[in-house]
Design brief:
Distance between the termini: 47 Å
Number of strands: 18
Number of helices: 18
CATH topology of the largest domain: Rossmann fold
CATH architecture of the largest domain: 3-Layer(aba) Sandwich
Number of domains: 4
Strand order of the largest sheet: 2-1-3-6-7
Radius of gyration: 31 Å
Length: 451
Amino acid sequence: MPTGIILIIDDEEKLRSLLSRIIRLEGYTVLEAENLKAGKKLLEKEAVDVVLCDVKLPDGNGVDFVKEIKTRYPSLEVILLTAYGNIADGVTAMKNGAFDYITKGDDNDKIIPLLARAFEKVQLQKRVEQLEQQVGKRYSFEGILGESPLIAEAIALARKVAPTDATVLLLGETGTGKEVFAQAIHQASKREGKPFMALNCSAFSKELLESELFGHKAGAFTGATKDKRGLIEEANLGTLFLDEIGEMHIDLQAKLLRVLESSEFIKVGDTKTTRVNVRIITATNRDLQGEVNEGKFREDLFYRLNVFTISLPPLRSRKKDIPLIAEYYLRLFAGKSNKHVEGMSKEFLDHLQQHSWKGNIRELKNIIERAVILADNPQLEVDNLPADLQVASFNTNGPLSAFDLASVEKLHIQRVLNYTKGNKTEAARLLNIGLTTLYRKIDEYRLSHEV
């Protein structure tokens, strides 16, 4: 049943009381006011969802009041009631933002369905606002996880450059969160609310990348049946993030340089220039200076991109942040899968700390998602990790413990099972053990054997 708050503003007490009783029966909370002044006081105190307001009131006109309400409370909806409806008032009311305009008496049977639709619109608007807040937080600097000095330094630099229109070059290994930083810079800039477009330059051939980036005219090439806006044009007034910029073909680098120097470009197959106002943020895991020295990257473009450089540290350089990041993804994926998983065992965290994390945060995210899916207990355990992570770093200064040997055996059996695609007979043959022994080991180590 509805749980919204409805405010009735009407100087006719009998009608007000009747409407109030009817609306309460539908599950709404109802507030009453005899004039606009009293109505305004209630709006200041209560989180009203919908207002039912008479047009003719002792201290003002409901049609004019709609505009005032919508200015102060944009997500609130207003339904106007009038004893003598006329087209002019109705048109003005709708222009001022009224949800609807109905005649008393003749339209009483319409009030409840109308309230339901207005309340539904209010709830939808609230949900949109909540999502916008969540998205804003997710893509803000507050959404970047980590407290280590290296990530704190990177965030501080990004905060300083964000309000400017300077071109930013993000350096870091794959999976270190370069796009997250680009989005945070965009969110903290004066271009917030404008388009943020992202493109991975390594995902396209030269021809396709040119079309995706700059757009094309109809007939420019086979299959170009209509005009297409490129991402540079789509990002106008906003930010364009170009990931893996080092993969861009050197011919396209010249066209990008022109955008940076003159804010204009020519679409594929066009003869006219297109002007844009766009901020460029780029990222790479390559040594661009080395690429310049080898003639693989334009020196003039490198210096235009290298106005403000931020280096993002790999996860292995900030291992103190691993528990924090792992906890975040644990909550995220536990919520998505509706699983009761509350934490991680010490052994689980120890194994995470000892891993090399070549895939950085992206790899950690995938491993936590997998662990949550496999979890049967309130805590993530070592058994929920992939087989190669279940082997802890060995102490090479002394003999291997029984635990270490068991871990090696477990890892080896899992690798053989993966190799045989789950064929246990073949796996037992390769391991030179009996099939019964293999089944016992699978149960003992809780190995994954279905491929």
